[in-house]
Structure prediction request, 291 residues.
Amino acid sequence: MAEPHSIESVHPLDAPGAVPAEVAARAAQVIADRTGVARHDIALTLGSGWGRAAESIGELVAEFPAEEVPGFSKPALTGHTGSIRSLRLPSGAHALVIGARTHFYEGHGVRRVVHSVRTAAAAGARIMVLTNGAGGLDPDWAPGTPVLISDHINLTAASPLEGATFVDLTDLYSSRLRALVRELDPLDEGVYVQFRGPHYETPAEVRMAGAIGGDIVGMSTALEAIAAREAGMEVLGFSLITNAAAGISPTPLSHAEVIEAGKAAEAHLAELLARVVARIAETDADGEPVA
Ligand code: HPA
Prediction:
């Protein structure tokens, strides 16, 4: 069982001498015990709009609240579910679905933001699928449009890497996996720009994001993708465009509309992600079956 952590007790990732990889290994052991699945092959983090995808990907093996796993925190936001699910794909591969995301803007530090990714790696996953709801700079992207993330620009001024850890981020969002997805659905691609939030961007910041090469603005995925790469995973990223980014459309942004656009797109996204996961579970980067 996970050790309960009350508000008074020190979070395991903040304890003196805590080693993030060790906390992730403990978390992975709890997941293995709770699910009876020794090794998960693929992991998915489901952001706004992507929550229902888990229902279509495979057969539910186990589900439990994320906060029962060491290092995971309660979700800060409604619209984000807080469960961890283990699914068995038709191919026999096992998928770990993380419905609990800690955002950088919550102010608990990057270790907690990327703990789920490190846990997924410790649980055996070699492919990390990161999904989010985000603002779009392309006026052709109506709310509800899913877009593949081709690269990112990290404007948080933070990194999940600690010490002199130099990690190559070339092809961070695997061109192999993106090509597989585009065979199934010719999605547009874009560069994801992570801001710290939780405020939405100003129109000037959105113009800057465009000027420096960005197409999508959001508050999550870049830091997680870096941690996934550090852990040796292949990364696939999707943004659901929930709204035109600030200043792109004359309408002001509202969190309620972001959630609503996510809900409206859920069925389509669930179907898309189920097909994608089935496809990528066929072979890994070495051409071997994933399971
Ligand atoms: N900006 C940043 N994050 C977001 C947005 C946005 O416009 N929409 C949904 N998440």
About this structure: Residues 137 and 215 are 5 Å apart (CA to CA).
